[in-house]
């Protein structure tokens, strides 16, 4: 990988990091377990690696933005996540911020 | 699937023990569901090679487990500026205190060159220990803050209650300020006066020592090496004065003092110091009457050793300053070159 490509990759990852959190919070207005969440995000064009998504869910839960519960589905125990009340409030504010940034960038371009 | 079991077992080994089972159960459920989907799509079980490629694409067990770790750094961004500030203080003051303590110890006990070399060799270890202690303390502060966020007072960075109105006024860049004609002329005039004074000192010692010239009545005298030292000083002053006069005559006096000029003068200052250090048997002071050696010889030897040690330290400091200055000049030149290439 050349220096420029490396720089681009770092900046791309930095840009995506915040967006992924927003996408996950948006998708978890409905309950999902890890794998179906990943599929749902991919179906909307937001591909995300397993090794990024599953730890992210844990982190958001430890921050109080998600709630989770273990439940059996299709003869297998799965951990289902959804937005908590605090998560809904934070998501609304983040969305507002996102829209402002989006508008500003569109104006700049 | 045996390969998946082995993969999850490898991930588990690198997870925090208190959450291992929970994380692995969740990861297993997700990966098994994904595997089922893949196999349903293909209408057959994955071959060994396909399963290996799939797990490889998920990531190595260490990488996957690392993402579940709460903290990946020793000292975080909130604490780091203060840590860096304290670390620099600790290293600087550690070096100063250690040097003074060792110099006093060596002079007091009359230790020789071997003790000086040993002290210099041990210096990096002292600084390393200082740095390690500071790092450990700040890492502990960081860890406590992360583990008990609600119970600890948040770490306050340096000067947390700063106000823009309290910022110091803009300083003038003295180094790059053009010199005035008056200043350049005054430097030449005072240079002449200083040189005149320096040339008169050997004939009228009270011009340098004032009332302290009574030392001439002491049973000690300066060794001949001081005469060489004196003429070196005179030579350097004549060289500097000539440079200033040439600058004034060529109209180059407006230019700020360049780093190269500063460095070359600094290099010249090594000559008189080296002359003194090269004194035979480190004899910088002698007895006026050799027969006094029985009563005054011990004190004289201590004085010679102490002054020689002080001169060695001074030389080391000048050399370090010179290396530092040359390094800065090199970096500056390289940056200018890179900027010019752009």
TrEMBL record, chain A:
Signal peptide location: none
Domain Transcription regulator PadR N-terminal, first and last residues per copy: 24-91
Domain of life: Bacteria
Protein name from the UniProt record: Transcriptional regulator, PadR family
Automatic annotation (TrEMBL), chain B:
Lineage of the organism: Bacteria, Pseudomonadati, Acidobacteriota, Terriglobia, Terriglobales
Protein's UniProt keywords contain Hydrolase: no
Membrane-crossing segments per the record: 78-101, 121-141, 188-207, 227-246, 267-287, 307-327
Descriptive protein name: Putative membrane protein
Keyword annotations from UniProtKB, A to Z: Membrane, Transmembrane, Transmembrane helix
């Amino acid at each position: 990988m050349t220096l420029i490509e490396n720089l681009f990759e770092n900046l791309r990852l930095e840009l995506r990091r915040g967006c992924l959190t927003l996408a996950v919070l948006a998708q978890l207005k409905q309950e999902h377990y890890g794998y179906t969440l990943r599929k749902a995000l991919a179906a909307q064009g937001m591909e995300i690696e397993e090794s990024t998504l599953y730890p992210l869910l844990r982190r958001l839960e430890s921050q109080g933005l998600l709630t989770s519960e273990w439940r059996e589905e299709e003869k297998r125990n799965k951990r289902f996540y959804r937005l908590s009340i605090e998560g809904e409030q934070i998501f609304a504010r983040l969305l507002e911020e996102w829209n402002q940034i989006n508008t500003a960038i569109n104006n700049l371009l | 699937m045996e390969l998946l079991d082995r993969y999850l077992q490898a991930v588990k080994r690198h997870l925090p023990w208190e959450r291992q089972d929970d994380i692995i159960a969740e990861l297993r459920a997700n990966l098994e569901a994904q595997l089922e989907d893949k196999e349903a799509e293909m209408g057959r079980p994955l071959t060994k090679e396909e399963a290996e490629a799939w797990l490889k694409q998920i990531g190595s067990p260490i990488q996957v487990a690392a993402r579940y770790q709460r903290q990946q750094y020793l000292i975080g961004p909130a604490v780091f500026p203060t840590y860096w500030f304290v670390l620099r203080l600790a290293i600087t003051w550690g070096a100063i205190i250690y040097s003074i303590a060792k110099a006093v110890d060596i002079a007091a006990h009359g230790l020789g060159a071997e003790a000086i070399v040993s002290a210099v060799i041990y210096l990096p270890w002292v600084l390393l220990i200082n740095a390690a202690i500071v790092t450990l303390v700040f890492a502990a502060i960081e860890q406590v803050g992360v583990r008990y966020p609600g119970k600890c007072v948040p770490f306050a960075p340096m000067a947390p209650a700063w106000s823009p109105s309290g910022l110091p006024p803009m300083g003038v860049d003295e180094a790059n300020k053009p010199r005035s004609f008056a200043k350049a002329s005054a430097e030449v005039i005072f240079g002449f006066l200083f040189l005149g004074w320096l040339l008169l000192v050997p004939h009228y010692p009270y011009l340098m020592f004032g009332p302290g010239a009574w030392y001439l009545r002491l049973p000690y005298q300066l060794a001949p090496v001081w005469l060489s030292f004196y003429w070196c000083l005179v030579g350097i002053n004549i060289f500097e004065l000539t440079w200033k006069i040439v600058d004034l005559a060529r109209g180059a006096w407006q230019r700020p003092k360049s780093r190269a000029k500063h460095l070359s003068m600094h290099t010249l200052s090594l000559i008189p110091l080296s002359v003194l250090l090269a004194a035979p048997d480190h004899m910088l002071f002698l007895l006026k009457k050799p027969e006094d050696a029985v009563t005054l010889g011990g004190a004289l030897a201590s004085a010679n050793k102490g002054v020689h040690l002080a001169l060695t330290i001074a030389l080391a400091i000048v050399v370090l300053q010179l290396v530092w200055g040359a390094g800065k000049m090199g970096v500056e030149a390289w940056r200018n070159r890179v900027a010019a290439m752009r």
